[in-house]
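Q: Focus on the shape:
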Amino acid sequence: MHKIEEIIATTFRQTVLTRFELAAHTRRGEALLTRDEICDLWLAENAKLLGEGVEMIPSYRWGWSYISHFIHARFYCYSYVFGELLVLALYQKYRAEGAGFISDYMKILRSGGSVRPDALVKPLGVDLADPDFWAQGYGLVEELVGELKDLIAQGNEG
């Protein structure tokens, strides 16, 4: 359960933050934004994740203001989403290929940030523009949710 929650928090929540930032920068390209307009963008992007099932309290409209990297390290949250989804998909690739995957993966780790991500994973046969590659990572999430459902069913039987 913890791993599922972690993945969801990283991919979904950080995507909300990234989309808020993108919306704010896009609107800022048109004109200066008032604090109320920024708050409205914040609520609109969060509503896409939370839907009607969660009521956002009035003070939550200021939620954006405590996240300093919106100012100091723009689009920082994107790296969380990208990294989480990349790791999930690469893990699935490892599971499919086995030990042969490890030496190429270690080369990637040794190269650090010296190469663009698309070039970095190319030796692994990975195309970052391929939606199927990214879907593999969520295949792992689907497995974890299936395992959780099985555990819950077993608990309910006993």
Notes: The chain has seven helices and no strands. The CA atoms of residues 28 and 54 lie 28 Å apart.
